[in-house]
Every structure is written in C-alpha cells, then in structure tokens.
Amino acid sequence: MITSVIIPAYNESERIVDTINGINDLAEVDEIVVVDDGSSDNTAQVVKSIDIEKLKFYIQTKNYGKGKALEKGLEIMRKDADIVVFLDADVGKTSSEVIKIIRPVLDDECDVAIARFRPASKKGGMGFVKRLAKDSVYEMTGVELNSTISGQRAFKREVIDRFDFMPDGYGVEVGMTVDILKWGYRVNEYLVDMTHNETGRDLKGFIHRGKQYLHIKKIVKQKKKEWGD
C-alpha cells in the first residue's frame, strides 16, 4: 500500500522543517508533497533546502487558499497512491502522530480517519466555530463528529477520487466531511497528541475565527443546496 502525505503551507518557515522531518522516517509514508501557497516569508527557500528523497515540492505564485493547494498536491502526487493524507504544515515535530490516522485506514477500520486533538492549552475562543461545524455536519448527515474542522485526515484513494475539486477557504474540511458521509463512507476519529500554532485571543485571532465562521456558513449553505437539505 502506497501512502502520500500532502502538506499545504502558507508562511510556515519556522515549523515546516520539523513537520516534514517528523513523518520522513515513518515506514508507512512513501511520499511527502508540500505545496507552498504563495508564502510571503521564506517557506519556499526552507523547503527547497531539505534533501529528502520522498519529498516533492511545488510553489504557487499567489496565495490561492488551502483548497487550491490541496488540489495541486493531489495533481502532482503519485498516481499509484492507495492512501492520501492531508496534514497541516504547523504541527511541527508532532507530525509523527499522523501514524494514528494512517494505520486505521491501512487496516480497513474505516474509509476516512480524522485526527482529534486534545483540548488547547490556551483559551482561543474557537468554541463557536467548532460548534457551527459540528452541528452543521450532524444536521445534514445524522453523524456526530467532534473534529469536523481538523485538517489532519487520511483517506482511501477511492474516497478522494470522488471529489472533482476541493471546497474553497476554511470550510474545506466541513464541506468534504458532509460529502463523504452523504456518500456512505465510514468516518472515524482518533485521538492524537498533536499540537499546532494555536490562535490567540487577540485581534488577529478573532479576525481569523470570524473568517472561519463565515466560510463554514457559506459552505454549509452550498452543501444544503447541493444535497437538497
């Protein structure tokens, strides 16, 4: 079984090396695809300097958003990949925990595995975004998941091939989750000891969460229209 890990990266020069190194030695990971989504820092230069045989790297000249970065990763990954993994660039050394969502898919416990993080170490005010995502998925599918906005996911290739394109913006995970459950695939969550760059309770953090909320609202409205809900 061939596993490809796709990492969309935007201004992650401080963490991307640790994120890549954390999964490089995993025997279950055959390919690492990093897509720089028009970073304004030196993420591209940092990744270019990494000498790893299983690493592929692509630079998008503009910041097109996470959905487009994932699409590009799917386009350039190995065509014979059996399992496709999405991994955020900011998880650093804890990226090795991704094995906890790869193995269940390898073992056919589920068709899609989602990483469930432990509660954040600092209050970030993310509650209303997570509630919107969780409640919206439950309302549309009848399935209760706690990590509907988690970016760490492992998919059987047949599932990912069902998508003609990735939803845009911060609603990408919620949109995909709705479709996958509607199609009847098995989705499980697995607790991981990952950490990422937590959003704080400052102005920048609240603006970010506001954007997330609006993007999720938009994608949910779109999915309700598509599925006739």
UniProtKB/TrEMBL annotation:
Its EC number is 2.4.1.266. Its cofactor is Mg(2+). It comes from the Bacteria. Keywords: Glycosyltransferase, Magnesium, Transferase. It catalyses: (2R)-3-phosphoglycerate + UDP-alpha-D-glucose = (2R)-2-O-(alpha-D-glucopyranosyl)-3-phospho-glycerate + UDP + H(+); an NDP-alpha-D-glucose + (2R)-3-phosphoglycerate = (2R)-2-O-(alpha-D-glucopyranosyl)-3-phospho-glycerate + a ribonucleoside 5'-diphosphate + H(+). Transmembrane segments: none annotated. GO terms for molecular function: glycosyltransferase activity. Residues 4-126 form the Glycosyltransferase 2-like domain. Belongs to the glycosyltransferase 2 family. This is Glucosyl-3-phosphoglycerate synthase. It comes from Peptostreptococcus porci.
